[in-house]
Amino acid sequence: MSRTLCEHCKFSLSTCLCEDLSVLDNKLKIIILQDPNEIKVSKNTARLLTLCLSQCELIIGETQADFSLLETLPVASTALLYPDQDAVLLDDAGIATKTFAEQLSHLIVLDGTWKKAFKIMQLTPSLNNFKKVSFATIPKNRYRIRKAPRADSLSTLEAVAHSLMLIENANTTGLYQALDALNNKQTQFMPEHVKARYQAK
Q: Which domain of life is it from (predicted)?
């Protein structure tokens, strides 16, 4: 039996987040490439980003053919958020990094497990046209309700929020408030001993 979903936020009525959402008027356009397996994940933070950002587009797919939009993006002012040894570290305070960040107009983000994100990279050669960006220091993970195999894993929302703060000095408080609300509402019906495990993280 399928759950009844909120018409606006698309979360279940019992975990509706509409009252917890605010919209950030971001200048940097976020392009999210989402693995199809993430669509039905109830704890999907990419969906939250489309509700909380004025400039955000979500595209579902796995291969080059699914992401034809990439061909229209300006190469010089578009970056891909992806860990790489040659990536520009956005939290580097150097002049060159600051100048590069100020010139960005689009940021591509891959939404999926590390394995799925790597698969999208392998099947979408045009992603290699864009400069990669990453972080030298990973902020503390506030997304308690999904297990990640790596200690430096951030949810898509956290990665985008941190990027927007570093690139355009955006006030991302509203994004983290939406994430906290998601954490709380997804755990509200758990037995206390199970809920305690998530809250202890």
A: Bacteria
